[in-house]
Design goal:
The chain is mostly helical. The protein contains 22 helices and nine strands. It comes from Salinimonas sediminis.
Length: 512
């Protein structure tokens, strides 16, 4: 087993979250967490002993908040809320999503403001460490009053209800508990509500969106730079002075990345004094457009990692003065709006990439053979590959429509404004899949263009970018069954291998 990750509640970094997104590692909760957890739990027990009426502890939920629950029904209340709220639908979350969601829920509960006992947190940690993942449907949350349905499916497993995945196979929850050495749990007052309430599903999806956007941006920088050489485009638009006078840090960083990738290119040196004045925007304005993507990626990432460390259930327990306060931290509007911006940013990566592919297949703009193939007419070359890129980029225009501006009241109008954060963040995976396909097609086209520029060579880093692809896909000499080429290139993009390589070359902190 891998060494354990030391979890100090409330201190997860973006690098930590990226690590858990890509792979599993057991976690070990800091001993410092035990005191606050115990103090909050004691505060809840004291409230019950004193007969005070507090929402979620001895009252109903939502519109039923004014219904007082008898002391002998408080345990049943917590079980009932978990089971009734496990109303999700659709495909199950991927393991990486559940892994992040559970990590964030553990991180939040362990801060000691939720009033759960240590045994509940320990059970979640055991399931996490044993890689026993609750089967959680993706759909059913509106991102307000918490991600109730997804978190209920996660929590129902502790009660022996629902299903789990173990090494990709589905089993009844009780089997999963037995494998983990956990007995079916009885939740104390407040524990069921604390497990269900919170933004951890939305935030897990949003974190994935951050990492998808980061990977797509890095890949687009490398592929876009390769297109600069394939199209024999000017380097002048990347001159540092142009970007310094505008003043946007992200734009300046992106221009620097292109300069580093294109430095010492033989193709660039060969046409340094050509009479071409300006290139199309898709090539010339890459620092401006990708800079805007980077700017908003950085802002969204900072927002989302703050939420990942936050306490977002309700009510909250403040043991220092024995207060239990009802508020609205479960409302995920800030995640919804951040996810909307990531959707736009991802879509713009694809939009610009598709335009560069269109440039390359147009011989009047690129100076390359029409549709990047010899013997045109007999061969159609990249003609329909560019159409596919256009189709994917166009799909993203609809998918990127903001979700955060939508709201549909729930719970008999008690919850009269919701965020739609879960969908806003969940759709980022679909958008990214489209982006990966568009970038893959440009990668194929740009590599084809570079081959046509022989014997001139691109820069050493970009030779490696092309070689990475050529290990999987050979030169397109004449028409062949095209789909496997696109599939292979898309898999390479989605593997993050290209993004990781570009990160090492440009030496710029994409997410600060």
């Amino acid at each position: 087993m891998n060494s354990s990750f030391h979890l100090e509640p409330g201190t997860l970094t973006l690098d930590d979250c990226r690590h858990f997104f890509r792979q599993h590692q057991p976690i070990r909760l800091s001993d410092n967490a035990r005191g606050p957890i115990a103090a909050a739990r004691q505060t809840v027990d004291d409230v019950i002993a004193q007969g005070r009426t507090v929402y979620g502890i001895n009252t109903g939920f939502g519109l039923l908040a004014n219904t007082r629950i008898a002391p002998d029904q408080l345990i049943e209340l917590q079980r009932s809320i978990v089971l009734s709220h496990a109303a999700g639908i659709g495909e199950f979350m991927e393991e990486a999503t559940v892994r992040l969601m559970m990590l964030l829920k553990i991180n939040s509960l362990a801060r000691g403001y939720s009033g759960v006992g240590f045994d509940v947190i320990a059970a979640l940690i055991t399931l996490f460490n044993r890689r026993i993942w609750p089967a959680v449907p993706q759909q059913g949350s509106v991102g307000a009053s918490g991600d109730l349905a997804p978190l209920a499916h996660m929590s129902a497993v502790l009660l022996g209800e629902g299903e789990v995945f173990i090494e990709g196979q589905r089993y009844p929850a009780k089997y999963g508990l037995a494998q983990a050495g956990i007995k079916v749990m009885t939740l104390a007052p407040k524990e069921g509500l604390a497990l269900l309430n919170g933004t951890q599903a939305s935030t897990a999806f949003a974190l994935q969106g951050v990492f998808y956007t980061e990977s797509a941006l890095l890949s687009a920088i490398g592929i876009g730079a390769l297109t600069v050489d394939a199209a024999a485009a000017s380097r002048v638009p990347f001159d540092a002075r142009i970007h310094q006078v505008r003043g946007h840090c992200a734009q300046t960083d992106i221009a620097k990345a292109y300069r580093r990738l294109l430095a010492s290119s033989g193709i660039g040196q060969a046409h340094a004094h050509c009479d071409k004045v300006q290139d199309p925007y898709s090539v010339r304005c890459q620092p401006q457009v990708m800079g805007a993507v980077l700017h908003h990626l950085r802002h969204s990432a900072a927002t989302i990692v703050t939420e990942a460390n936050g306490v977002s259930d309700n009510p909250l327990v403040f043991a220092a003065d024995a207060s239990i306060l009802s508020g609205g931290n479960f409302h995920a509007q800030i995640i919804a709006m951040s996810a909307d911006m990531l959707a736009i940013a991802l879509s713009e990566i694809a939009a610009l990439s598709e335009r560069r592919t269109a440039l390359l297949v147009d011989s009047t703009l690129s100076g390359l053979p029409a549709f990047l193939v010899n013997n045109g007419g007999v061969n159609s070359g990249f003609m329909i590959a560019q159409v596919t890129a256009a189709a994917l980029a166009s799909e993203n225009k609809t998918l990127a429509h903001p979700a955060s501006v939508d709201s549909l009241p729930t719970s008999a109008n008690q919850e009269d404004h919701v965020s739609m954060a879960t969908f806003a963040a969940r759709r980022l995976a679909t958008i990214y899949q489209n982006v990966a396909g568009v970038l893959a097609i440009e990668w194929l086209a740009a590599s084809q263009g570079i081959d046509f520029r022989a014997p001139l060579k691109t820069s050493e880093p970009l030779q490696k970018v092309q070689a990475m692809l050529r290990c999987q896909v050979p030169f397109y000499a004449k028409d062949r069954y095209f789909a496997p080429d696109i599939a292979a290139a898309t898999s390479l993009v989605q593997s993050h291998a290209l993004a990781d390589f570009i990160r090492t070359v440009i030496k710029i902190d994409i997410i600060q």
